[in-house]
From TrEMBL:
Name used for this protein in its record: Ancillary SecYEG translocon subunit
Family matches, as Pfam families: TPR_21
Annotated stretches, region: Disordered: 251-276
InterPro entries assigned: SecYEG/CpoB_TPR, TPR-like_helical_dom_sf, YfgM
Membrane topology: Single-pass type II membrane protein
The Ancillary SecYEG translocon subunit/Cell division coordinator CpoB TPR domain, residue ranges: 19-227
Keywords per UniProt: Cell membrane, Chaperone, Membrane, Transmembrane, Transmembrane helix
Keyword Ligase: no
Polar residues bias (residue ranges): 267-276
Annotated TM spans: 21-39
Family affiliation: Belongs to the YfgM family.
UniProt-annotated location(s): Cell membrane
Amino acid sequence: MTTQTDNQNADKQSMMALKKHGNTILTIVLVVLAAYFGWQYYQNHYAKIDTVAADAYTNISNTNEQLIMTAQNSQLDEAAKKKLVDEENKLFAQIDDLVAKHGDTTYAWQGLMMKARHQVDNNDLKGAIASLQEASKIELDDGLTAMTKIRLARVMLADGDTESAFATANEALPQAFEASRQELLGDIYLAKNEVDNAKKAYTSAWEALRARQENRAVLSLKLQSLGVVVQPIEPPAAVVATVNTATTDAAQATDEATKQPADGQADTKTPQTSNQ
């Protein structure tokens, strides 16, 4: 009788606990199921899409490398040049297809940057501007966006559109790109015959490089061509130490190599023969 009563009490307690915590348990179960099926959906959908985009870009990259190698051949005849143009158009079509299907990925951005490079090489600056503008709209890492905008402004400048180049160069960019931005502004000011502003921009770029102890030979030449005395940027102490160590090691190696023949000669003296 006691056992039956105990069982009934246990059942009542279990029911009360279920009523009290039932919603919590149900919520946990639903969360676990949602996470599981969400992961399955990602693996079957987005992961597969990423793989497809990666494979497409790999094919594009391989084709691009082949085209670059072919274009470097200065002995191409007219038929070969025509074939090269046809292959390049096919490459552009592949890139456009990648962008159309996976336009929010890094692969699409890389494809558009690649396309813009070919267009610049072909002196199709307006085509390159369109490609770079499309690339700049892809929401990616701030660094990639900054690289795109700086390159876009440079192509605009090359195309003679100094105002658009100036506006693009003045858009907000990460501090890490300040030196490149200031150098670009200097180029734009110089194109507009604003020499004093060009000097200021180039100097700002040089000081930004000094802050991170980085030399840029071309910028130094730009400043010197405008009559600005450039203060050398000292390399980091670690680099100096590495160079000094390498120099010392090389000197020691040379010294040892110089001594080696004499040592060898001493070790190989002709043995004296005894008179018998």
